[in-house]
Design goal:
Radius of gyration: 24 Å
Shape: globular
CATH architecture of the domain at 355-609: 3-Layer(aba) Sandwich
Number of strands: 36
Largest sheet: 8 strands, mixed
Structural class: alpha+beta
CATH class of the domain at 355-609: Alpha Beta
Strand order of the largest sheet: 29-30-32-31-33-34-35-36
Length: 612
């Protein structure tokens, strides 16, 4: 197999910031930093930029930030094993970096969601799909109060049905909010429960099939609310409002069909950060809730994700582009970016060695315009790879993707597709995937992208491959089983679903409502649709090259998908290659494993699509 070259090694040592959060006192930023250590770890940096970042954790495992304590003296972090997602929670004090104090058991049989420490420092709140009294795994996620002194765990809220939810404790330590999907898989309602569990009630519901999100303001009495509807009637945009729960009063701040608001947050000083996306580009702003005045941030190439204002008044944000890895920056003044993480001082790479993302458009089979990001090889090799993002409720943007950058460096044009169902283009575009369900016209969008590459002279017929992870892996499976080799000649699905019934039955419980929403029902309700959209039933139609990639610890798209499709491939004498990572879960995340994977992908596509 091809050995990783120096450019790939440099790419896979290029640090990137993932999640980041200002402390309640606005003096610190806790953030996840990737590729500084051998895996993902949590770091800390002063918001004024007066000192270099320090590691709060350093383990061989995937360690993520969960929450700040309200006194700003510690953070809660989570760590799993080989990305099995069965996390353990730890406390790490700001003044004792590296000392991870365990709060929950190691290698649990359940999935923990969230983790908020009460101001008393002795009580932890989180969600978990487990009944500790009966010692049995649950489908729904219950909300627990955990006494760290005695070890007693008391359920304070018991949803009826599974749903992904991260309970949030208010700063006063009196109440939590969390979301339920008890009414319909496509909806989400916000519930309020007091810390003693005496009253758990539905707080916000704008329709059984309407999704709603909420976040606490610092005073613990107001909530920032983002909803797909104000009154249960369908909308093609999100509405943003402030809800005062003791008085049951809602004030809508933004309710404009022309605005494509997709996310929001409350900064530690109570300002509202608005995340608007237009054509997969971020257009951030902030609102002063006292005046209602909205202020945009200066526009710039790339993407800016503001976190909030530091104690000295400077804005803190994440900034990134295809030629610039994600960094933490200060905006002081707002038009000037000053790095807090100084990534370019940690690498021999420079921006000129990276390929910029180019906006690329085409029409799908029904005339819908589809957007993607085109990465052109330095000289046109007339061969290409279609890269399909996961989700599908997600989107690709002008962002540094090491896998794409390496493929381009090895002589492949790459098209990163934002098919229907993607976020970043408004609520109506996101919802279009549900008109057909998975395996519908979103797959035509992807195929049409491959044809557009051929028509533009960026690839020849028979020299287009496809790859992606998760839903991108499913799409790679779908393309190779449903498209002729003149259009899709090779596929490398990574952790992709092969049988949608098997996936539904073996995945995490909190993911099943999502499948039901996307497919228009559970497998027992719409069995024909699940069957006809499952690539496993069409492997006999594969006429191109196939490389299957799987993480053996994946709890999302489980290895059972691969085991069963292998049987069908062998029964039909369809040749394939298999690359399994025993120490990976949903996606290949360890840089050492990525080096092996990316080199193998280039080797595979070289043989399948022809050398340059």
């Amino acid at each position: 197999m091809r050995q990783p070259d120096s450019f790939l090694q440099q790419l896979l040592s290029l640090p990137e910031v993932f999640e980041a959060q200002l402390s309640p006192d606005r003096r610190w930023i806790a953030f996840e930093w990737y590729r500084i250590h051998e895996n993902l770890d949590v770091f800390l940096v002063l918001a004024d930029g007066s000192a270099a970042p320090v590691p709060l954790t350093h383990t061989p495992e995937f360690t993520t930030w969960v929450s700040w304590t309200f006194d700003s003296r510690a953070v809660i972090v989570a760590e799993d094993h080989d990305r099995d997602e069965r996390e353990r929670l730890f406390r790490v004090d700001v003044d004792r970096p590296g000392e991870m104090q365990p709060l929950t058991p190691d290698r649990p049989p359940y999935f923990i969601r969230g983790g908020s420490l009460h101001p008393d420092g002795r009580t932890l709140f989180y969600g978990v799909n487990y009944d500790f009294a009966a010692e049995r795994v649950l489908e729904p996620t219950w909300i627990y109060r955990h006494d760290l002194s005695s070890g007693e765990r008391t359920p304070i809220a018991r949803p009826d049905r599974p749903a992904w939810c991260k309970p949030l404790l208010n700063r006063a330590g009196t109440h939590l909010i969390y979301t339920r999907k008890d009414r319909h898989p496509a909806g989400a309602q916000v519930h309020l429960v007091d810390v003693e569990g005496r009253e758990d009630r539905e707080l916000l519901n704008f329709g059984d099939e309407v999704k709603i999100s909420a976040w606490w303001f610092p005073n613990g009495e107001r909530l920032l609310v983002l909803s797909e509807s104000r009154d249960g009637r369908p909308q093609e945009h999100y509405s943003l409002g402030v809800y005062h729960w003791p008085d049951d009063e809602m004030i809508w701040l933004l309710d404009d069909p022309a605005r494509s608001i997709e996310d929001a947050r409350v900064s530690p000083d109570g300002l509202i950060v608005v995340e608007e996306l237009r054509e997969a580009r971020r257009i951030p702003s902030y609102i002063d809730p006292a005046t209602g005045i909205e202020t945009p941030f200066p526009s710039r190439r790339g993407n800016l994700c503001p976190l909030g204002r530091a104690a000295d008044g400077a804005w803190i944000a994440r900034y990134y582009a295809a030629t610039s890895p994600c960094e933490l920056v200060r905006l002081a003044p707002p038009s000037t970016l000053t790095s807090l993480t100084h990534v370019w001082e940690r690498t021999e790479l420079d921006a000129d060695q990276l390929t910029p993302a180019e906006d690329f458009r085409w029409r799908s089979t029904d005339g819908l315009e589809v957007q993607g990001w085109l990465y052109r090889a330095r000289t046109n090799p007339r061969r290409a790879i279609v890269y399909v993002h996961g989700g599908p409720t997600w989107h690709s943007e002008d962002d540094l993707n090491a896998q794409i950058q390496y493929l381009v460096s090895q002589g492949f044009n790459v098209l990163d597709v934002n098919y229907r169902g993607s976020t970043g283009f408004g609520l109506a575009y996101r919802e279009r995937i549900k008109e057909d369900g998975w395996g519908g016209r979103e797959q035509d969008d992807i195929t049409a992208g491959a044809e557009a590459l051929i028509e533009a002279g960026l690839a020849e017929a028979g020299r287009v491959g496809v790859t992606g992870t998760s839903y991108g892996g499913y799409s790679a499976w779908f393309q190779i089983t449903h498209r002729p080799p003149e259009i899709i000649a090779a596929a490398a699905p990574i952790c992709g679903m092969t049988d949608l019934v098997v996936d539904y039955e073996t995945t995490r419980p909190d993911l099943r409502p999502y499948s039901a929403e996307m497919m228009g029902g559970r497998p027992d309700q719409v069995p024909d649709r699940y069957r006809e959209r499952s690539p496993i039933h069409f492997v006999q139609d594969i006429h191109g090259h196939l490389l299957i990639v799987q993480g053996a610890q994946d709890p999302n798209v489980t290895p059972e998908n691969v085991r069963q499709v292998k049987e069908q491939l062998e029964a039909h004498a369809v040749p394939y290659q298999l690359l399994t990572f025993e120490d990976e879960g949903h996606g290949i995340s360890k840089p050492a494993n990525q080096a092996r994977l990316y080199a193998r992908l280039v080797e595979f596509f070289d043989r399948a699509l022809g050398e340059m």
